[in-house]
């Protein structure tokens, strides 16, 4: 592995990496958020860890400890789902990233596995650039690995679906309750397609309209295969590697 996990270093070793100008990557992945009846609450955390490990296998980056909490309002009512207010999540990001900047890190990137977290991450990166002059790069899972989209067959995806299930099959199949996976599109297929953004929640209440989801899933996890998951992870890794090489060419060429 060319990169390292920050948590495995001593502080003098961390300083050596920082002083060499290594890119520090902060992954965001919920450690406890509902993903239906078949995927564990730690699905996002597993995805964040796998993506970061694959990235560090190729590039000499320093991977910070995964941020296991975030702004996940659509799932807050499910038992076990942990959710931060937008103010708390933004403040946490500001403190963590600002701490690295205070320690002399100038090459920083965020790897975000959430969707509702996207706008808050982008705003905080913009604000930190305004106040510190450090331009932090942000990668969101919604934009990653799109080259593998042709493999997926579900009518509609979004959460605990064919895509996420396939990646967990590739990462840690023992965590999967495959016999509990069922198609669940809720009422989203009938929802009007417009240019407007509409906030949404997931709800098991039959009268919830387009928010309805019987299982907390949106998509068809029964179509997932390990092979699709491997292809998706490979596509995500390629996007991340290409992106960091383009943005930080000198930093990612340093010797570990």
TrEMBL record:
Kindly list the biological process annotations in GO that this record carries.
Answer: riboflavin biosynthetic process
Q: Give the keywords, sorted.
A: Hydrolase, Metal-binding, Zinc
Example GO molecular function: hydrolase activity, acting on carbon-nitrogen (but not peptide) bonds, in linear amides
Q: Does the keyword Hydrolase apply?
A: yes
List required co-factors.
Zn(2+)
Q: Which InterPro entries match?
A: Creatininase-like_sf, Creatininase/forma_Hydrolase
Q: What Pfam families does the database record attribute to this sequence? A: Creatininase (PF02633)
The text of the family note is: Belongs to the creatininase superfamily.
Give the protein's recorded name.
Creatininase family protein
């Amino acid at each position: 592995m060319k990169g390292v996990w920050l948590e495995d270093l001593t502080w003098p070793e961390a300083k050596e990496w920082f002083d060499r100008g290594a890119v520090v990557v902060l992954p965001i992945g919920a450690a406890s958020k509902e993903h239906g009846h078949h995927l564990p609450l730690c699905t996002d955390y597993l995805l964040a860890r796998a993506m970061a490990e694959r990235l560090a296998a190729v590039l000499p980056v320093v991977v910070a400890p995964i941020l296991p909490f975030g702004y996940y309002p659509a799932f807050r009512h499910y038992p076990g789902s942990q959710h931060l207010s937008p103010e708390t999540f933004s403040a946490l990001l500001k403190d963590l990233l600002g701490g690295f900047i205070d320690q002399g890190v100038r090459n920083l990137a965020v790897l975000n596995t959430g969707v509702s977290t996207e706008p808050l991450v982008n705003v905080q990166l913009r604000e930190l650039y305004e106040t510190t002059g450090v331009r932090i790069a942000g990668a969101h899972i919604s934009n990653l690995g799109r080259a593998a989209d042709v493999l997926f067959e579900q009518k509609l995806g979004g959460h605990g679906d064919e895509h996420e299930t396939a990646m967990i099959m590739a990462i840690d199949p023992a965590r999967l309750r495959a016999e509990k996976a069922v198609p669940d599109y809720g009422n989203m297929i009938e929802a009007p397609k417009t240019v407007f953004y509409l906030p949404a929640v997931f709800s098991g209440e039959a009268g919830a309209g387009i928010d309805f989801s019987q299982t907390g899933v949106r998509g068809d996890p029964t179509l997932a295969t390990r092979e699709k998951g491997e292809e998706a992870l490979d596509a995500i890794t390629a996007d991340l590697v290409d992106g960091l090489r383009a943005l930080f060419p000198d930093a990612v060429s340093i010797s570990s």
